[in-house]
Hints:
The protein is of the alpha/beta class. The chain has 18 helices and 15 strands. It has a six-stranded mixed beta sheet with strand order 1-6-5-2-3-4, sandwiched between helices. The protein has a five-stranded mixed beta sheet with strand order 9-15-14-11-12. The radius of gyration is 26 Å and the shape is elongated.
Amino acid sequence: MQNLYDVLSERGFVEQVTDVDVRRILGEGPVVCYIGFDPTATSLHIGSLVPIMALAHAQRNGHRPIALVGGGTALIGDPSGKTEMRQILSLDQVRSNAEALRRQLSRYISFETGGALTLNNADWLRSLNYIDFLRDIGRHFSVNRMLAAESYRMRLETGLNFIEFNYMLLQAYDFWYLFRHHGCLLQMGGNDQWGNIVAGIDLIRRLEGKQAYGVTFPLITTAQGTKMGKTEKGTVWLDGSLTTPHEYYQYWVNTDDADVGRFLKLFTFLPIGEIAEAGALRGAELNMAKAVLAFEATRITHGEDAARAAWRAAVAAFGLKTVPMSIMPSSRIPRESGGVDTSAIPSVIKKREIFEQGVPAFELFHEVQLCASRGEARRLIEQGGGYVNDQPVRFFDERIGVEHVTDRGEILLRKGKKIYFRIIVR
């Protein structure tokens, strides 16, 4: 097996490490490592994929991951990266969310016998005696050092609630508890968790006289500087009932050109060598690489069947060419496009006679609702943003007729780079 640290580093997961010995420790034998997920909703979202994938890589490389569901800490709320206090959830809400997250995480990590563990920190935090906790644990924490932590320092400007001030102590206690009861040596998390991770390492050193380690991940943003998983429609969830597999696939296939290689490293298990070659792809081949990214990401989250259905729907809608084996051959993406299911694809069936004389392009773009008005359609085409069968429309009143019908009996209209409409001509 490859050293886990090398795997995470070359794929872009590593932002900071608490000790230079992390790589050596991960190369000496199986290590128990953990990441926490607070159950503040019924589903995780794309922003949680980096830690999830890190745990999956740990398991694939012979280590034992613990997915810690924060049923206890969620009752308080983590102030890290937040400008205001999180909504306080009821105990029943937290319990329900925690169970949903346990099921969701099992898609990525195997919790079979001898595999990974899924634990809930409510099992040990809710039974703590407050006086004993302050005496045995709280005395090891310096208020001055806590206030210097970025997660607290940022909140001091807008107001830090006392209940949130306890969060660092509880997360540090989690790390010590997992170290003591499960032999956990490594905590991983987002870079905003640095202060909490360091606090846990310090607590283990004080209570046990032993060394533990931490790795943090960078905040992942798109090439446009936007936060991962945010779209015009809202959050992209990992739960198929909140974000359908088709919508999930479309999110990935619309990845910015500059992000394709980076996202293939982070969000798929494809070999790093194949991904490196994707960096040289351009034009149609780069679009094929996006299809591979979308397929693999969807397959990991929603399963093979859902990924194939989403891919075939995209083929039907956008006329994707067959992806050759030379484009990341380890991908399970279908290599031929037969038997496409078109039932879920926006389309309009037109009689061939309508196109005998041709239809002015701006009228057609308006009629199929690619544009809200004929004026908008005219401006779109005049500015070079209207396409027919991937060819730019030269004039706003250019007639679209039977000569534009492809061998598949359709006309494919496109607005800008990503908005398509397929007209079936019978």
